[in-house]
Amino acid sequence: MSAAVGERTVTILKSGTYGSPTSNGTPILPYRIDHLSRRGWCPAWTDRHLDGFWARPRIAGLVTKLEALGVPFLQTMLALPAIRHSGGIVAIFESEGHCFALLRRLGLFRRRRFVIVACWLAELATAMSPRRLRFYRWMYRHVDHVVVFSQNQRAILRDKLGLTDDQIVIARFGIDLDEWTDVPTSDGGRVVAVGRDEGRDWGTFFAAVDGTGWPVTVASRPRSVAGLDIPPEVDFR
Questions:
Q1: 179-227 confidence digits (pLDDT tens)
Q2: What pLDDT score does 147 carry?
Q3: What pLDDT is recorded for position 57?
Q4: pLDDT at 3
């Protein structure tokens, strides 16, 4: 996506086609990062590696294999012209930010603000080998901020990766409360829980529901609740 050059431009590092402009040309990005434009920023990104020369089967296959051996790098390299003129860089998910983090460790682009929106980082940090953990601690030293969506990740990132509290940003996740401030509420009605990611703890949720008498609807993968006792309050779909 083209953007005006200047300190109010922010380059978005992402993978896949999600976030490409819609039919009316309005970009919608995961986590609504496009809302940065409301604060005067102009988001810019590239999907050029998904078509043209980079979409040729042999080229795409080679890039996929190389990125699997290390980190996603092609989009970052294609975005370098935009990065040079950006006031900040936001990586959607940690893997998309690792190539740029390595460039920062080499002393490049350190005057640009750099933010990684993390998804699996805390979980990975608790399971990786000591050697890989040392590498991550080295790599994340010049990341300005890591955004996570739950408070319980702060201690993990601080203890495992050596991030400071100032580097870790906790963002509200799941619902934008500001959009619902004027909506009437009620204590009645049905409880609905929807999700299929493997990290959901349905066992704890079912234990909390059991015996309440509240009508509950749960929508998820059948394998996610395999072996669990589903309370009579729950209509599982």
A1: 777 878 777 788 999 988 777 889 999 999 999 999 999 999 999 999 9
A2: 95
A3: 92
A4: 44
pLDDT at 34: 80
Say how far apart CA 71 and CA 15 lie, in whole Å. 12
Is-contact 54 63, C-beta < 8 A? yes
Q: Are the C-beta atoms of residues 142 and 110 closer than 8 Å to each other?
A: yes
Question: 112, 101 in Cβ contact below 8 A?
Answer: no
* DSSP β-bridge partners for residue 89: 11, 114
Q: DSSP string covering 76-93, please? A: HHHTHHHHHT-SEEEEES
Q: What is the separation, in whole angstroms, between the first and last Cα of the chain? A: 40
Residue type, 84: R
Going by C-beta distance under 8 Å and a sequence separation of 6 or more, which residues neighbour residue 145? 113, 114, 115, 116, 167, 168, 169
Structure token pair of residue 48:
């050029």
Q: Name the E strands within the chain.
A: 9-13, 42-44, 88-92, 113-117, 145-148, 168-170, 191-194, 216-219, 234-236
**Within 13 A of 98's CA, how many CA atoms are on the CB side?**
17
Rounded distance between C-alpha atoms, residue 44 and residue 176, angstroms? 24
| 3-state SS, one letter per residue, for 179-190 | HHCCCCCCCCCC
Name the token pair of 130.
């000591």
Calpha distance 179→92 (Å, rounded): 23
